[in-house]
Design brief:
By secondary structure, the chain is α/β, with parallel strands linked by helices. It is 45% helix and 16% strand. The longest helix has 23 residues, at 287-309.
């Protein structure tokens, strides 16, 4: 587990090193605000302890920008939240959101190009009903998956939906994340594909008795899909503060500690080295994010080969 996480941290440092050097000293000359700044974080991110901890980490590494507090946003769907964030005239105040990146999102918003979970969001496993486990037993490649007619549940505005459809996989959607769990229980689809950095927390929150849902043990879907922090297009000060804070956290090692603290358990418990990896294409990334995502996939492949050679 620790070696895998060290590899992920080293990979991130390698990817970001030119950016870190180019922006060394960023934030110098910033005058501290006299009043604490209250940042509104999208509610899904606020309720996710790992994401909330990351935002606090970035902001706490930039004291020259002043004191801060973080509040929970209204309960907006992902699509609505991003529209509100992009609309500088919006009356719904939203300052920060963490979502998977796309070229379109990078065009419309300010992205902070650091994969917040070490690139784990594009590595996905299935949350399923116990009675449906046998449907997955003989799937060993993408062609098997397509022929099985297994359907996957996803959010209507999530980039995953377009990625899965582009790879010929049936997708059932809903705009509300919470309702997707109800749809899974009602057998509306076979697999709720969740990132390996998300699935254990999701299961604990939505199946606390551990009786209704199980994590399918055989498959790992992998596609390049970095997850970034985003701010409004005209809020360059918040974007700069988050960027500088994350750069400093990478440099002083606290970002690596963050990855170990929040993502060590899923990397260990999900048995990545024992899973059949099905790699999917993601045609919706910018060139820069495609490079980040490709390196994450290559690193996963090397780790799995090392596990198999032991």
């Amino acid at each position: 587990m620790l070696s895998a996480l060290r590899n992920a941290t080293t990979l991130l440092s390698f990817i970001l090193l030119p950016f870190l050097l180019a922006s060394a000293g960023a934030g110098a000359g910033i005058e501290s605000d006299s009043q604490p700044r209250e940042y509104t974080l999208w509610y899904r991110n606020y309720d996710n302890q790992a994401t909330l901890a990351l935002v606090k980490l970035a902001l706490s590494h930039t004291p020259e920008y002043g004191e801060f507090s973080i509040r929970r946003s209204e309960e907006l769907t992902q699509g609505r939240a991003l529209k509100e964030l992009a609309d500088t005239r919006s009356s719904t105040r939203l300052d920060i959101a963490n979502v998977a990146t796309t070229a379109e999102r990078e065009d419309e918003l300010n992205e902070i190009p650091v994969p917040v979970d070490g690139g784990l969001l594009g590595f996905r496993v299935c949350l399923v009903l116990p009675k449906n486990l046998e449907k997955f037993e003989n799937i060993n490649n993408l062609e098997d998956l397509r022929e099985s007619n297994i359907s996957i549940g996803q959010g209507a505005h999530w980039p995953d939906t377009s990625i899965l459809e582009a790879n010929g996989i049936p997708v059932i959607t809903h705009t509300r994340y919470e309702i997707l769990f109800r749809m899974l229980r009602n057998d509306r689809f076979d697999c709720f594909a969740r990132g390996i950095s998300e699935v254990l927390y999701d299961k604990a929150a939505h199946d606390p008795a551990e009786k209704e849902l199980v994590i399918e043990p055989h498959l790992l879907f992998a596609y390049p899909m970095p997850s970034y922090l985003f701010t409004a297009p005209d809020d360059s000060k918040t974007a700069q503060r988050l960027r500088v804070g994350l750069e400093r956290a990478i440099q002083d090692g606290s970002f690596g500690d963050y990855l170990k603290t929040w993502y060590g358990r899923p990397v260990a418990e999900l048995g990545l080295d024992q899973r059949t990896v099905i790699i999917l294409k993601n045609p919706f990334l910018s060139e820069a994010s495609r490079n980040v995502g490709r390196r994450a996939l290559e690193d996963l492949d090397r780790r799995i080969k090392r596990f198999q050679d032991r």
